[in-house]
User: Fold these one by one.
Assistant:
Number 1:
Amino acid sequence: MTNNEFMLLAIEKARTGINQGQTPFGACLVRKEEVISCEHNNVWNNLDITAHAEIIAIRKACKKLGTIDLSGCVMFSTCEPCPMCFSACHWARISKIYYGAGIEDAKKYGFNEIEISNDFMKEKGKSPIKIEKDFLRNECIQLFKEWSKSTDKNVY
Amino acid sequence: MTNNEFMLLAIEKARTGINQGQTPFGACLVRKEEVISCEHNNVWNNLDITAHAEIIAIRKACKKLGTIDLSGCVMFSTCEPCPMCFSACHWARISKIYYGAGIEDAKKYGFNEIEISNDFMKEKGKSPIKIEKDFLRNECIQLFKEWSKSTDKNVY
């Protein structure tokens, strides 16, 4: 599978979440071209404010691989991880993050964002994580558009 | 109960964690002088790199109170929350964080810290959370000393 295909899995998963009344975020965690976990934001379903797609993907990957060290794993996230999720990626020693939409896009659609970019977190926090932004950006932004049209959407 | 007593509960909980081979961090979440949740770091027990004391305390509080909005709740943490935990506090709309030891203390004892202070996260991220640092600092630093003497300690 290609990187494009991994991101498309994250996008499809986010779409599943939207259809369940969740917010439009998906994340796919990959190691050696194998999908380890693929999750959507589940804050409302779980009634858990920490249930961002990336956090759930990391937790599931730790369980699945039997380790807290996810070195060599790559995160494909439909939106730039918030500082909580970026920091979780750092703790998990994830090697690289690909993301589509930016934090400023999420803010535009009403999310209560912490406006600190991944680039900034990486530099200031001296994290070795590699970052590739704007990856399938248009397809990822499309998720916000679909979500904003749904009748049972809830922002937070 | 007083704020000192809430922090002492977090310290005692961290001590319970140390005795289970966990890292020396505890957090107590309080609303209107009632303890909502009190947890220790459980990364090794749960095999979950996101299982910091504050994250678990927030998740339990959401479940217990039946809401993702923890406005009015106060976090007592034995150590300055890492950026993951600080951001989770922001998302949960927690009103105030009291912490004892600082991120630099955790680093001194070998933790792979992201060196971004809560003050910085608050200012840069425009978070309304209030912060009170150095709260029972010596008692909280004592936890690191106890932990460093334990034979089954594991850093990450």
Note: The longest helix of chain A spans residues 3-19.
Number 2:
Amino acid sequence: MRLFSTPQLNPASETGWRRRWFDIIYRRDTRPSRNFDLLLVYAIVASVLVVMLDSVQHIHAAWASWFYVAEWGFTLLFSAEYALRLLVVRRPLRYALSIWGIIDLLAILPTYLSLLLPGAQTLLVVRALRILRVFRILKLTRYIEESGILMQALWRSRRKILLFLSLVITIAIVAGSLMYVIEGPSHGFSNIPASMYWAVVTMATVGFGDIVPQTTLGRFVTSALILIGYSIIAVPTGIYTAELANGMRQAEAAAGRRRRDDRGCVVCGYEGHEPAARYCNRCGHELPEPLEP
Amino acid sequence: MRLFSTPQLNPASETGWRRRWFDIIYRRDTRPSRNFDLLLVYAIVASVLVVMLDSVQHIHAAWASWFYVAEWGFTLLFSAEYALRLLVVRRPLRYALSIWGIIDLLAILPTYLSLLLPGAQTLLVVRALRILRVFRILKLTRYIEESGILMQALWRSRRKILLFLSLVITIAIVAGSLMYVIEGPSHGFSNIPASMYWAVVTMATVGFGDIVPQTTLGRFVTSALILIGYSIIAVPTGIYTAELANGMRQAEAAAGRRRRDDRGCVVCGYEGHEPAARYCNRCGHELPEPLEP
Amino acid sequence: MRLFSTPQLNPASETGWRRRWFDIIYRRDTRPSRNFDLLLVYAIVASVLVVMLDSVQHIHAAWASWFYVAEWGFTLLFSAEYALRLLVVRRPLRYALSIWGIIDLLAILPTYLSLLLPGAQTLLVVRALRILRVFRILKLTRYIEESGILMQALWRSRRKILLFLSLVITIAIVAGSLMYVIEGPSHGFSNIPASMYWAVVTMATVGFGDIVPQTTLGRFVTSALILIGYSIIAVPTGIYTAELANGMRQAEAAAGRRRRDDRGCVVCGYEGHEPAARYCNRCGHELPEPLEP
Amino acid sequence: MRLFSTPQLNPASETGWRRRWFDIIYRRDTRPSRNFDLLLVYAIVASVLVVMLDSVQHIHAAWASWFYVAEWGFTLLFSAEYALRLLVVRRPLRYALSIWGIIDLLAILPTYLSLLLPGAQTLLVVRALRILRVFRILKLTRYIEESGILMQALWRSRRKILLFLSLVITIAIVAGSLMYVIEGPSHGFSNIPASMYWAVVTMATVGFGDIVPQTTLGRFVTSALILIGYSIIAVPTGIYTAELANGMRQAEAAAGRRRRDDRGCVVCGYEGHEPAARYCNRCGHELPEPLEP
């Protein structure tokens, strides 16, 4: 997966400032690189908070100009970061077209676009674009070490879950069409897409209650739909649990094999003995004392 | 299960156009058969989209005549496909009575019926029948190879899930009756079937909010019902997860056995040795070196 | 568990009609006993349906007298069955005090009580008692063979699930009290019990929407409560799945041991060989050919 | 974890009343200590009930003075208990700063504070503080022996569940911002925090229905959000189930190892043989016959 691949240094300069910044941005084990990561995380969270608070009317009324300044401050900071990344990596285009590269770009673009598209009539569009800055928070996940196992289990079960979703959508089409015929537009089921929306909301046990069956037959079909949804909600859970348990078992087995490998036979070199074995499995020579775990 | 059985060629003509079409329709590995499958999937999705969009009032107002033409186009296409399937399979009746045969028929029947049953007063009935065309999308699942494991796990756990559903229905009857007595018709619990509908909606954690307890005792019973539902929602998940993990373990064990088979004994031909074995299990002759995995 | 214990014949008469009826009621393998079971199941379902339909106003208006007759018919039938069971079992009192004995009694009592407590003012109470007749359907589960594994897994995990429920209730008390203070009676959180009802409805992801937070702080606490509930909904599922997988593995292992045991060594009598073994594990004597599975 | 650590006796007096009370409060196996625990549990439940009932208006009107007396009675009882605990443990400060110490203090503080902060205008604040007394019920969990396995599995999976929660919050920010732009304040999505509240309520399948999408695009995004939530609801369940199954397998393996230990070699004393072993693993001496399990 390109998602987790490590970028390589721009070969133009193995030494100099590029080298230094590459180490700061992409390595984890030095003090400056850790400070850089932390600074970035704080900046991302703060910029998302600004967008969120700016949307609350009475806060916007009082702080609008401050938020405007902060907005441009964050945009310039992230622009500098984006430029730096482009300069130091070996293949800038590859970074620019990767998932993170696109998110990094989308996080700065809306503020610049708001300069090009001024005027009251385009405010809504600009607001829509600015919202995309929220995607910055997605960067956060990059900094969390532990997400690997969970993500890999999700990734391995992606085809099964997609299949499951297509089953859910098929049921939603059939149930939505049925309810559209049974209840009709007068009870809120105004067309098949709206009925499908209702079917998804119902089957996934959300149940907003904005559209609700009112005929006896409609309620009967709804109960059946709910029980079907209740029965197959097990499917993604089952898939994911099985995959995760599998992954954890493999990780454990690998750790177990590594533990065995520690004591190779000094005569024939055979490794992989039982932790309690005292003689080599293969040639009979005495093994070294096992280490305390 | 007849659901996944492979149909056999009509013996009347082992060669000629029947043979050719049978290969196109039922085999997967040639280019024309793959094109046929893809064309069918596109046609099914497009026809379902037409039915869905036709139900939206303002789209219907503008495009009604186009949809009418598309409707008949799809119907004729699917009719030709249905006829072809009947002609080339060995036992046409068996296909016609199979699940897919019935769905294929239901997918074309409503459009023809709309000719025989004209008039404004029957419009609703015809619409109901036309909805059945949506079942076409169910055909899609036939074309997805990977659904096997998921379906088999569901199939193996069908009895346990049915048992669980009957338990849910029993609780719904008891809880619905109780709430009908406690809350009464004035609070929306107008009769036992309606109360049962409410109990199913509540226990499955959908919670529309169209019927809601208003007395203290009613709220207490509701809380108890919710906690019961919350506790037993684990049951179908547990059943399905256990079955799926079982199936995956068996598949893995089978794969492991196949891997063992790679090293047969050169003397007695016995296969299925332990990966670490150095001598034949059966005759004692030395085995070839195991390959690196 | 007394729930699944088999009753013993009344010793007073090893032969005669008691013996015959005991076999019909409590055994499963003869034709008359199977017919008796089936008749009873049909009668239970039919009597429940009568109670349910009788609660629907417009059906009651048209069919009240028929339902009255059916009601008494079922009551007399079930009374006869109850008397029979009391007569043929060895210890009638034990049956009468068992779970099924009490349910059997509750299923016939309300109709008789409606004779003793006539008058318009007691109608509601009688209706409440009549509802208990619905418990008849609980008898159904007795007739389903397969429920064993599921019930045993539930039974083994009962303490863990009770503990989990007490955790849920504790969180409901704390969250309910908090919301009562934050939102107050004017927003529907009229007292702590009502707030607890809301907390249970919310945490279990039912979400009726009859009581809803309206302040920003209230919505924040609600989001936190939902995320907590979302995280611990895993607990009962995990408990039950682990117990069920455990039970299935044990059943499989037991079956595997039985399969191995089939071939004992003719010399030393040792059992439990690998299915593929050709010589005795213990004394080296040749084993008999393994049977085809 | 300090949560489950056992406190040590105050060394100042190994004998005398401190010793006696330490045994009563912290040990489990004597009759007085069991009575003490039971009395405390009853007192906690009763005090919580009083707070709850006092919040119901018509009950408060009739019983206010009785509740006032009970309130002070419980407060003095718990104050005495708190003082006792401080006196008998070896390091009182450590207890006072532990989770349970803080809860014990919070459970008595509000009643005293209501003396210092009298007056109608502060009633609401005091009520808020009094609510904290409900935390007493959290003490209950301390007295339940069996919670260990469940809590440890939760504890082991805490990092994975936190990671999952941060993913849920990220999705809530993105989806909430999107819906704020699509639906806007006129449809109830008045600002991004409110939209995020809606996104959490929807994704966790609670679905109050107080805020609901009304445009077609909004409903489409909602359906997508629901399906995403429906797919990843598996994650915490999978994590917890895998951890719990892991814990149970380890407990079983430990029990199995203990079972093996039963047959030690009479010559070299080595324990831990395979159940089927006939000779000592270490010195070759014949082992005693294995006992029937």
Note: Residues 1-5, 119-126 of chain A have pLDDT under 50 and may be disordered.
